[in-house]
Amino acid sequence: QVQPVESGGGLVQAGGSLRLSCAASGRTFRNYAMGWFRQAPGKEREFAAAISGDGVTTDYVASVKGRFTISRDNAKNTVYLQMNNLKPEDTAVYYCNRVSPLTYNAVDAWGQGTLVTVSS
Question: What digits encode the pLDDT tens for the residues 51-61?
Answer without folding.
Answer: 999 999 999 99
